[in-house]
């Protein structure tokens, strides 16, 4: 288990800041009086709240409204960019934590906000208005992994967290935790808002993002995360992330368009 490091070690400390964060860095649970956008310009990060975990590679940005307790974990050496959104502007964005797609314009504005000091009065506020406009037009992405409250369902998800590549069926997992397939299937839908298959696929994609960020091959990642063949992995990854594993790695290397 990786130990939490002090937030002042490498994590940006200014409202609009950036920093290269080492793999495995964990920022302990905390909250802010303002909203916060966290963007991994390179690498990937996971944001966890009581509602679950979101993973954000370079084509996603995480949004956490004021007052939500959250933590971050870094995967791969990550260029983390932080943008604070004043509380009186947060009403224009989602009222809950989420991950949104990053358009080319949004990426450039986030980089400018976190790279440059404000020279002309009001420049940062004008750039922030562009960020809010872009996010208002962006759809939420399917990289959210909700976490259960029911003890039986949590026992199942704990088993899968420990071994995402585990090939057990819901019937087999139910026998292990003492619950029927029908009960667990109902709980996945009522508590998590998705099927067992969808939840496990999203969990596996989370882990695949980490492996790909760390330089694993597409085939090796597919096998490690539980897919029977690379083509089924590529299809699932593309559906959730919006691009193939190969394109994701090419963009990590700076080879993308």
TrEMBL record:
<dbReference type="Pfam" id="PF12833">
    <property type="entry name" value="HTH_18"/>
</dbReference>
<keyword id="KW-0238">DNA-binding</keyword>
<keyword id="KW-0678">Repressor</keyword>
<dbReference type="InterPro" id="IPR014710">
    <property type="entry name" value="RmlC-like_jellyroll"/>
</dbReference>
<dbReference type="InterPro" id="IPR018060">
    <property type="entry name" value="HTH_AraC"/>
</dbReference>
<dbReference type="GO" id="GO:0043565">
    <property type="term" value="F:sequence-specific DNA binding"/>
</dbReference>
<keyword id="KW-0804">Transcription</keyword>
<keyword id="KW-0805">Transcription regulation</keyword>
<dbReference type="InterPro" id="IPR009057">
    <property type="entry name" value="Homeodomain-like_sf"/>
</dbReference>
<dbReference type="GO" id="GO:0003700">
    <property type="term" value="F:DNA-binding transcription factor activity"/>
</dbReference>
<feature type="domain" description="HTH araC/xylS-type">
    <location>
        <begin position="154"/>
        <end position="251"/>
    </location>
</feature>
<protein>
    <recommendedName>
        <fullName>HTH-type transcriptional regulator RipA</fullName>
    </recommendedName>
</protein>
<dbReference type="InterPro" id="IPR011051">
    <property type="entry name" value="RmlC_Cupin_sf"/>
</dbReference>
């Amino acid at each position: 288990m990786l130990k939490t490091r002090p937030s002042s070690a490498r994590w940006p400390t200014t409202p609009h800041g950036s920093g290269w964060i080492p793999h495995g860095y964990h920022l302990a649970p905390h909250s802010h009086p303002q909203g916060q956008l966290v963007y991994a310009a390179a690498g990937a990060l996971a944001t966890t709240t009581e509602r679950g975990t979101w993973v954000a590679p370079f084509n996603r940005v995480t949004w956490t409204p004021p007052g939500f307790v959250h933590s971050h974990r870094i995967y791969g050496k990550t260029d983390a960019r932080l943008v604070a959104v004043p509380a009186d502007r947060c009403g224009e964005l989602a009222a809950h934590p989420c991950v949104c797609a990053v358009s080319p314009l949004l990426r450039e504005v986030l980089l400018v906000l976190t790279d440059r000091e404000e020279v002309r009065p009001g420049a940062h506020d004008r750039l922030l208005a562009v960020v809010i406009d872009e996010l208002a037009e962006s759809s939420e992405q399917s990289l959210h992994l909700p976490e259960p409250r029911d003890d039986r369902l949590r026992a199942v998800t704990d088993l899968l967290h420990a071994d995402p590549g585990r090939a057990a069926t819901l019937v087999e997992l139910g026998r292990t935790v003492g619950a029927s397939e029908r009960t667990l299937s109902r709980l996945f839908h009522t508590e998590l808002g998705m099927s067992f298959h969808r939840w496990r696929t999203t969990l596996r994609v989370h882990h695949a993002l980490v492996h790909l960020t760390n330089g694993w091959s597409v085939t090796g990642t597919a096998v490690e995360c539980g897919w029977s063949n690379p083509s089924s992995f590529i299809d699932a990854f593309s559906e959730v992330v919006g691009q193939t594993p190969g394109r994701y790695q090419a963009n990590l290397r700076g080879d993308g368009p």
